Amino acid sequence: MISKPLLRSLIIWAIFIIGMLLLPKIFALLGFSKGNLRTLIQACYLAIFAMSWDFISGRTGYISFGHPFLVGIGAYTTAILSYRFDVPVMYSIPIAVIVTMIGGTLFFLPALRIKGSYFALVTLAFMELMYQLVQVIRPDLTGGTRGISGIETLTRGAVNGYYLAVSLMLVIAFVLWAILKTRIGTALSAIAMNEESVKGSGLSTTKLKLFAFMVSACVAGIGGAFLAHYNGSIAPRALFDINFLFTIIVAALIGGSSTIIGPMIGAFFLTLLLEKLRPWLPGAERYFVYGGIALLLYMYQPKGLYAIFWQVVDRFRTRRGGQS
């Protein structure tokens, strides 16, 4: 027998998946341009990065400020392999993911032994280090400050690009959700609440944190590699920009940290909000506006839009129950 909470989760997943797959049809019926669909594609990739960040930071409480470091490793690895060395994409992307997991682990593993603001500062330093290195070390491979353009793309057209991005997002989301339903997922959540208690129970918190980081790095590497092949170009200024880091973190927090659907909701909310603000605030000023909106929402409900949605549903049920 399937428990009621699990059944409710499966129903939500089914509705969410069907809705995401039908969006291109809905957009076509409403007369929206393909530019709107490309905005949703960017939202899908942001959702992947937000879920990746949330898996390590939202679950274990270790706040990472260096997530673009992982995204950049995946993007640059597949770009260099496919563009410079003519490695087929079907090989360059898996290699990029593996390199992201190995490279990220070598850098971040020592940082997992420290806590709080020290961990955040160390991860931020890694992101800045990566930004500097790709510009000065072997610019003939990395493209230096200009980056790499002319990278092979995987799809043609906004509709095909959307279905690839949304399928990738949904598969990653479902896999992460399944992992978090296991005992490992429960142990990871316990680390954020009381790491010493987890140690006292006989579990190795270092191994658990390493597992969470490896999964997070894997997802970030996948997202970075596919994003590079969607855009057809990469540049260090875009990948290692503080606004990019800020957007990833805010998407996870405003949507609902320590959930899977929450970061996706936050990613789509922020991407669409930024796009709507673009005609009035074409520069970086719009980040202050959406940052203020995000702060107000977070102050009203720290658990994010996901919790607000369920509050509305519960109130609706209560009113219907009172009327009947």
Characterization of the model:
The chain has 324 residues and is an all-alpha fold. It has one domain (22-323). The protein is 79% helix and 1% strand. The chain is built from 15 helices and 2 strands. Helix 4 (89-108) runs antiparallel to helix 10. The longest helix has 27 residues, at 4-30. It is globular, with a radius of gyration of 20 Å. The model has no long low-confidence stretch (mean pLDDT 86).
Structure characteristics:
15 helices, 2 strands, two-stranded antiparallel sheet, mainly alpha, 324 residues
At a glance:
By secondary structure, the protein is mainly α. It has 15 helices and 2 strands.
Write the layout of secondary structure elements.
Blueprint: H1 4-30, H2 34-60, H3 67-84, H4 89-108, H5 116-136, H6 139-142, E1 148-149, H7 158-180, H8 183-193, H9 195-200, H10 205-231, E2 233-234, H11 236-239, H12 242-256, H13 261-277, H14 285-300, H15 304-323
Antiparallel strand pairs: 1-2
Helix pairs in contact: 1-7, 2-7, 2-10, 2-12, 2-13, 3-4, 3-5, 3-10, 4-10, 7-10, 8-10, 12-13, 12-14, 12-15
Distance between the termini: 30 Å
What share of the residues does DSSP label as strand, in percent?
under 5%
Parts with pLDDT < 50 across at least 5 consecutive residues: none
Task: Give the beta-strand count.
Answer: 2
What profile does the largest beta sheet have?
2 strands, antiparallel
Helicity range = over 70%
Q: Counting H and I runs of at least 4 residues, what is the number of helices?
A: 15
From the alpha-carbon coordinates, what is the Rg to the nearest angstrom? 20 Å
Shape designation: globular
User: What topology, given as strand order, has the largest sheet?
Assistant: 1-2
User: What is the structural class?
Assistant: mainly alpha
Number of domain modules? 1
Q: What string, H for helix and E for strand, traces the elements in order? A: HHHHHHEHHHHEHHHHH
Global mean pLDDT:
86
